[in-house]
């Protein structure tokens, strides 16, 4: 089995084998990340292909010291998906978003409130997540569903870990507030 370093070298040298190995090893992971955001499988397949085409053409910029090959590919996929979503659905800030800051609630209270509930409440939460901005949905998906560290999320999303931790708190707080309105 070839290592990621060997695969990257093969791609850099223009060998089709390297491209096939990279696609075979990571296409499912990239597709799964994208399809959670765009929900249309054809769009997700096209974005997955675009991700690998971009990766192949920019393989020289990959730095294994900064991120794993998987994380680097997810960063490319994130950017392409975000661009796609922004073209499709303009982001509108709701007036309700400004209310989020008016009540302090601890991180522990948020976690407890958002992680428990009956089936109806879980379905409501899923709908609320669907209404988040593409950036917010992506952060939740990477951190909670893919169980990525804040450092990996920060590399993929090109933001600091501290900023993403704050953003996660604000997103959870927004979801909590909206669930309270039920």
Keywords:
Rna Polymerase Sigma Factor, Chain: A; Arc Repressor Mutant, subunit A; 182 residues; elongated; 10 helices; 0% strand; single chain; mainly alpha; 74% helix
Per CATH, the class of the largest domain reads Mainly Alpha
Strand residue content: under 5%
| Mean pLDDT across all amino acids | 85
Helix content bin: over 70%
Global structural class:
mainly alpha
What would you report as the Rg, rounded to the nearest angstrom?
A: 18 Å
> Biggest sheet: strands, sense, closure?
none
CATH superfamily of the largest domain: RNA polymerase sigma factor, region 2, helix turn helix motif
Contiguous runs where pLDDT drops below 50 for at least 5 residues: 91-103
Would you give an account of this structure?
- There is one protein chain.
- The N and C termini lie far apart (52 Å).
- The chain has helices at 4-12, 16-38, 41-57, 69-88, 96-99, 107-115, 119-130, 134-145, 150-157, 161-180.
- The model is unreliable at 91-103 (pLDDT under 50).
- It has 10 helices and no strands.
- The chain is mainly α.
- The protein folds into 2 domains: 4-88, RNA polymerase sigma factor, region 2, helix turn helix motif (Rna Polymerase Sigma Factor, Chain: A, Orthogonal Bundle); 96-180, Arc Repressor Mutant, subunit A (Orthogonal Bundle).
């Amino acid at each position: 089995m070839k290592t990621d370093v060997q695969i990257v070298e093969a791609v850099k040298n223009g060998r089709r084998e390297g491209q096939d190995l990279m696609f075979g090893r990571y296409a499912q992971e990239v597709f799964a990340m994208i399809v959670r955001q765009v929900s249309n499988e054809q769009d997700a397949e096209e974005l997955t292909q675009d991700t690998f085409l971009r990766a192949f053409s920019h393989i020289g910029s990959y730095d294994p010291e900064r991120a794993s090959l998987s994380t680097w590919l997810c960063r490319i996929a994130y950017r392409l998906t975000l661009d796609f979503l922004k073209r499709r659905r303009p982001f509108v800030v709701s007036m309700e978003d400004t209310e989020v800051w008016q009540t302090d609630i601890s991180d522990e209270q948020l976690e407890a409130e958002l992680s428990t509930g009956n089936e109806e409440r879980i379905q409501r939460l899923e709908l609320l997540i669907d209404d988040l901005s593409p950036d917010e949905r992506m952060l939740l998906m990477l951190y909670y569903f893919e169980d990525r560290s804040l450092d990996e999320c920060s590399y993929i999303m090109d933001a600091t870990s501290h900023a993403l931790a704050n953003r996660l708190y604000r997103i959870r707080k927004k979801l909590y507030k909206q669930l309270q309105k039920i």
